[in-house]
Amino acid sequence: MLSCRSLLSRAIKKKKKSKNKNKKSASRKHESPPHQLQELEDVEDEDTEEGFSLKSSARSHSHGVQPLGNFFCNPGSINSRNTGLGSLQLLSDELVLDVLGFLDATHLGVLATVSKSFCVFTNHEPLWRNLVLDNLKGEFLFNGLWKSTYIAACYPSFDVENIGVFGCLRIRDFYSDYLFQSWLCANLEMKPEWLGRDNIIRKKGISVEEFVLNFEEPNKPVLLEGCLDSWVALEKWDRDYLVNVSGNVQFSVGPVEMRLEDYFRYSDQVKEERPLYLFDPKFAQKVPILGSEFEVPVYFREDLFSVLGNERPDYRWVIIGPAGSGSSFHIDPNSTSAWNAVIKGSKKWVLFPPDVVPPGVHPSPDGAEVACPVSIIEWFMNFYGATKNWKKRPIECICKAGEVIFVPNGWWHLVINLEESIAITQNYVSRRNLLNVLDFLKRPNASTLVSGTRDRVNLHDKFKNAIETSFPGTIDQLMQKAEEKKAEEKKPSFWDSVTDSKVGAFKFSF
């Protein structure tokens, strides 16, 4: 939150200087634009100096909320956040919003008339987003704001053209770090310094043996070029084509199902902290032609989960999202490895090895839950800078159309789309990773960790039995090889033995 305070407090100082400078030359009529727009102009100017920039549409969606630092920089100001909440001012902003999340649209509308403070809280867009997704499912046409989308769908006769965020009410004295940061994260462009580091190994045209030896066995990421040159999808998959071949088929978008045409309407207009992401595991069954227009790159064709047939966990997805959408830090399910191929657009990747937990990320001891920043931009704002001085710096890259990234099992990774992107990803199990997956599936809390399948409890036994039937002796061979490798690692090296003998000889001669 400190970054928001310092950012805006500097903007306030600049604003005061600017006012004094222009006071004589400007007529009173044009001296001060509406308060919240003036704030945004100052923020944008200051952000540019600091390496930040706001998206071009930021002003039109401004809610007028300011960070708490502005309140401290203006002696004598009153925070309507507190006065308008009354006794509820003791609650944190997050808790106030959690309570309001239990209300329906009518009660939110009524409560908005009580005070400016309640007006701000009840118009918080994520509240209305939840109402739309919970009540309308995927049957809605997004029109720029979740509140007006809900009203237009539920009350068609109501004129929502000029509803805005707060209607005609101007909010000038509401200070909240939490609400301001939510808006800021939704409207910040990626800083150039967040995109500059590219330290992943890139390879083109390597053999499968080289990939296995240098990357899959040592469990190291790599970016592969030229793997998709034969894909029909690389040439054909754009908006118009996908909408045309999909028709009325609905795809998984967060908690709902939507038609592609409706999703693109949403993605064209959305400006929010966590845009909905199209992430569908059944796309090839829903639209078979899509499944025929790509093929698994040669490096990833050993896929042992295939022995389960129709009972295998979800393993491949088509991914579509606007700029700013993506996935916050996570480890891929079931201890699998993965590949991710970009067909259109580009993605920024940040990866940490299994033994390094990313800053700001707090996994539970059993690995069942992971607490991390609300949004990807929030992580970049508040935690990315800390990694510059780490000895184990993250692996980073920008993966562009036609490129594939290999994500080894157990690696933490974050992905953000830098522009509208279309990609395919697949999780897989090879012999190099089979024992890890089996160990994962038999953990005591496997029923809470395993994902992508209805039968979480019995997946280990089903998978192990299927492997032993299809590839007799494979598990035993891999276990023996693993034991030999472990013993070799514990064995003293030649130089260790030489050093020990020298020390002993020295003591003896004395």
UniProtKB/TrEMBL annotation:
<feature type="domain" description="JmjC">
    <location>
        <begin position="285"/>
        <end position="445"/>
    </location>
</feature>
<keyword id="KW-0560">Oxidoreductase</keyword>
<comment type="similarity">
    <text>Belongs to the JARID1 histone demethylase family.</text>
</comment>
<dbReference type="InterPro" id="IPR036047">
    <property type="entry name" value="F-box-like_dom_sf"/>
</dbReference>
<keyword id="KW-0539">Nucleus</keyword>
<dbReference type="Pfam" id="PF13621">
    <property type="entry name" value="Cupin_8"/>
</dbReference>
<dbReference type="GO" id="GO:0005634">
    <property type="term" value="C:nucleus"/>
</dbReference>
<dbReference type="GO" id="GO:0000987">
    <property type="term" value="F:cis-regulatory region sequence-specific DNA binding"/>
</dbReference>
<dbReference type="GO" id="GO:0046872">
    <property type="term" value="F:metal ion binding"/>
</dbReference>
<dbReference type="GO" id="GO:0016491">
    <property type="term" value="F:oxidoreductase activity"/>
</dbReference>
<protein>
    <recommendedName>
        <fullName>JmjC domain-containing protein</fullName>
    </recommendedName>
</protein>
<dbReference type="InterPro" id="IPR001810">
    <property type="entry name" value="F-box_dom"/>
</dbReference>
<keyword id="KW-0408">Iron</keyword>
<feature type="compositionally biased region" description="Low complexity">
    <location>
        <begin position="1"/>
        <end position="10"/>
    </location>
</feature>
<dbReference type="InterPro" id="IPR003347">
    <property type="entry name" value="JmjC_dom"/>
</dbReference>
<dbReference type="Pfam" id="PF12937">
    <property type="entry name" value="F-box-like"/>
</dbReference>
<dbReference type="InterPro" id="IPR041667">
    <property type="entry name" value="Cupin_8"/>
</dbReference>
<feature type="compositionally biased region" description="Basic residues">
    <location>
        <begin position="11"/>
        <end position="27"/>
    </location>
</feature>
<dbReference type="InterPro" id="IPR050910">
    <property type="entry name" value="JMJD6_ArgDemeth/LysHydrox"/>
</dbReference>
<feature type="region of interest" description="Disordered">
    <location>
        <begin position="1"/>
        <end position="44"/>
    </location>
</feature>
<keyword id="KW-0479">Metal-binding</keyword>
